[in-house]
Write a structure and sequence with these properties.
Length: about 775
């Protein structure tokens, strides 16, 4: 009505010609649609094929087909006469097939990106558990295929799919069954796709299936506000709508405010709508006050009338103007050619003109009828809410512009959304609650990816976002905080001298080294006494010197590791201990040789007093030195960082380089120690004035026990505690040798000097021989 009046008032468009229109219903059934089309062709209520009874009316085009299905049904008749048919419904690629439908034209933009926008909306609100309700037709199947593919790509799951049967398949219980299944669904967000005809089942949702807690996502093609007028509530009380962007037509709202039934007395449909919307009584009753001429469409609620122009109304407006422009161009052509038949209108002649029609509408937008020039649709995201008190609101809350750069194509202002009484904040529609920071998702076997359990991040990993599929590992120089949602920088640490443990071990090493040197000085001072000369005093000097080096070598394991200290610590430690253990082996061998030399005719006499013990020490030390040299040449120790042993710390340590060489050096020392222990143990009962072999046996027992417990302890500790264990083992094993072998001698030298004389030794020897003789006689 508005478009026709606008054109008739335009002096430059179709001058001296008045446009008119007829309105016919297209019911949602094939039979009714064909009947209405035939009535239009016949020009009377009783359809007569191939006959037109109203010669004064000149029909030139049909604007109709809210859906592609209706357009196809209408075309079965209209294509026979080549009547142009302009579809104002949503774009359908099927209607663009000019081989099948050469006279059908579409104005609606393409909506191939609609599913992308809907899924972006779901992702924005974190709705991952969504139901789908679609019309059971070709367009519904295409939409279902596209949206499921996009939902899968974005990690959104489909909880159920309901297909609304077409009118031919509709039964009296369809809406009851469908709405009951939707009501039972755990999804709080439902996507609805279809038109007012195909989805009319949902319009009659009533108790007991009044679904007030669901959020619906749909398009403007489905008029969800329409419902039976006696219905108090609306199940669709919270709806997000993707509506094709349109420009505002000037003066349209002014036209709506002034339109009255009295202004169009011959328009029966408008009068019926007016009476229904304002609750007017039947014509034979007295009209109510609301039905007076002062009433306005503007006061009607949204469920009856929306003052804003919908996308379909916008297409109808452009379609009327397109027909007028094509007709205007046809009349101009006939006038220039002075066609004698200019007053006769042949509708099929408009087809060639409609294909190329191109004009700017009153809103300034370029309008094309060529399907190849139709662009992708841009969408306004609107929100409709119906509160329980009957208040209704429709507002624009966002946009989806597919052609815009990524990140700018989708926008929404959630602050202006007024959720209904059932939601204090953004509704949730998830299968599983979100996993917060410190947790990661763990998929449930046999269920969709949206259904998961939340498990705590493994050691060394964090999660600083919600719903993370996998926790992230902190960098090597970082470690997780207690909540496992943030990485903190690690502290660099090592066994420093300033640490209480390091200071204690260092002081202990220095004290024992000083004690060793004091004992060495004491032995040098009393070098001519029997107790010092016993068992080769040179061996004692070498043993004391090597023990002092053992104590000092432990200091190389403390402090910040460097290339020099890493190379020296194991080498000096290995050679020093080898000298100490080989000295003990030499002392033990000396005792055995001395005892055997006292026997008549013994060949051991030539070895007593020789340099054989010193040679034994040199050979054993040389072998260890060769092993250490090979180690340093092949795979030497080097400074390294251990970021994993202690949480929150990066341990600076010396990497052994070759573990084989490391354990080979230790194994060689263990072999010498075991050999010394065995020899000393076998010789423990040999006659000896100062009981040297027994002290050596006990000292080697302690020494071997320390290093036997070292290996498992060393392997079970981490970080700087490994270094502390090795230092402790060095100190304790060295201290056992020092104390067990030399402290008894120091006791004699300092506290029992009378025992350290030759007379005392001779007396003890005489007493021992006498006791041995008595024991022999008693045995005989």
């Amino acid at each position: 009505m508005f478009a026709i009046e606008e054109i008739n008032k335009d002096p430059d468009l179709l001058p001296n010609i008045t446009l008119g229109f007829h309105i016919y219903n297209t019911y949602p059934s094939d039979v009714s649609t064909l009947e209405s089309s035939l009535m239009w062709l016949s020009g009377q209520g009783l359809p007569v094929p191939n006959y037109h009874c109203q010669k004064q009316d000149k029909f030139v085009a049909v604007i109709g087909g809210a859906t592609s299905e209706l357009s196809v049904q209408m075309a079965t008749l209209l294509e026979l006469y080549k009547y142009p048919q302009i579809s104002y419904g949503p774009y359908d690629p099927i209607l663009s097939d000019k081989a099948r439908f050469p006279s059908i034209y579409q104005l609606a933009p393409k909506e191939s990106t609609l599913t992308l926008g809907m899924v972006q909306l779901m992702v924005y609100f974190n709705w991952t558990w969504v139901g789908l309700v679609i019309s059971d037709d070709n367009k519904g199947e295409t939409f279902l295929w596209n949206i499921r593919e996009e939902m899968t790509r974005k990690g959104v799951c489909v909880t159920f799919i309901e297909k609304i049967p077409t009118s031919e398949k509709y039964t009296i219980n369809s809406h009851t069954d469908i709405m009951s299944r939707i009501d039972r669904s755990s999804a709080n967000v439902i996507v609805v796709y279809g038109d007012a005809n195909s989805l009319r089942t949902l319009q009659y949702a009533s108790m007991p299936y009044l679904i007030l807690t669901k959020v619906w996502i749909t398009t403007s093609h489905w008029d969800f506000t329409i419902r039976p007028h006696d219905s108090t509530y609306n199940s669709f009380n919270s709806v997000l709508i993707f509506s094709d962007q349109t420009k505002e037509i000037p003066n349209f709202k002014t036209f709506l405010r002034t339109v009255k039934p009295a202004k169009y007395p011959e328009n029966i449909l408008f009068k019926r709508f007016w009476n229904s919307a304002f609750g007017c009584p039947h014509e034979h009753n007295k009209p109510k006050q609301d039905c007076s001429q002062n009433a306005s469409l503007e006061i009607l609620p949204l469920r009856f009338f929306d003052m804003s122009m919908s996308s379909q109304s916008y297409n109808i407006y452009n379609a009327v103007h397109a027909v007028a422009w094509a007709l205007h161009q046809l009349l101009l052509t006939k006038s220039e050619l002075r066609d004698e038949d200019s007053l006769v209108m042949y509708p099929w002649k408009l087809n060639s003109l409609l294909r190329d029609v191109h004009f700017n509408n009153s809103a300034g937008e370029q309008i094309f009828m060529n399907g190849k020039k139709l662009s992708e649709a841009n969408y306004d995201i609107k929100y409709f809410v119906n509160f329980l008190n009957g208040t209704e609101h429709m507002m624009k809350v966002g946009e989806f512009i597919p052609q815009a750069p990524h990140g700018e194509d989708f926008s929404i202002n959630e602050n202006v959304i007024m959720w209904n009484e059932y939601y204090k904040k953004i509704p949730l529609s998830v299968c599983s609650e979100s996993c917060g920071p410190s947790y990661q998702k763990s998929a449930r076997e046999g269920e969709p990816i949206c259904c998961f359990d939340c498990i705590l991040c493994p050691e060394g990993q964090i999660s600083n976002q919600t719903d993370m599929d996998q926790c992230i590992m902190c960098a090597e120089d970082e470690y997780p905080n207690g909540e496992k949602n943030h990485c903190l920088p690690k502290m660099v640490t090592f066994l420093a001298y300033e640490d209480p443990m390091g200071m204690t071990l260092a002081c202990t090493a220095l004290v024992f080294c000083l004690l060793t040197l004091l004992i060495l000085g004491l032995f040098v001072k009393h070098q001519d006494t029997p107790i010092v000369k016993a068992n080769n005093r040179n061996l004692s000097y070498i043993l004391l010197f090597s023990l002092s080096q053992c104590f000092l070598s432990s200091l190389l394991f403390m402090g910040k590791p460097t290339s020099v200290t890493c190379l020296l610590q194991q080498t000096i430690f290995g050679i020093s201990f080898t000298m100490a253990v080989s000295s003990i082996l030499a002392k033990t061998v000396t005792v055995v040789l001395a005892f055997k030399a006292t026997r008549p005719g013994s060949r051991s006499r030539k070895w007593v007093g020789s340099r054989a013990p010193i040679s034994l020490i040199l050979v054993c030390s040389l072998i260890q030195g060769i092993l250490c040299g090979i180690w340093l040449l092949v795979s030497p120790p080097f400074p390294d960082i251990d970021p994993h042993s202690e949480p929150g710390h990066m341990i600076l340590k010396c990497n052994e380089g070759s573990l084989i060489a490391f354990y080979l050096v230790l194994g060689y020392m263990a072999f010498l120690a075991l050999a010394s222990f065995i020899v000393a143990f076998l010789a423990r009962n040999l006659p000896d004035t100062f009981n040297e072999t027994k002290f050596i046996t006990f000292s080697m027992l302690v020494f071997c026990s320390v290093w036997a417990s070292f290996l498992p302890t060393y392997q079970s500790t981490k970080g700087k505690m490994m270094v502390a264990v090795e230092v402790f083992s060095i100190l304790s094993s060295s201290a056992s040798l020092l104390c067990c072998i030399f402290i008894p001698k120091c006791y004699v030298i300092l506290l029992r000097p009378q025992w350290n004389t030759q007379n005392w030794i001779n007396h003890k020897s005489y007493a021992r021989r006498r006791n041995d003789s008595k024991a022999f006689s008693h045995a005989s």
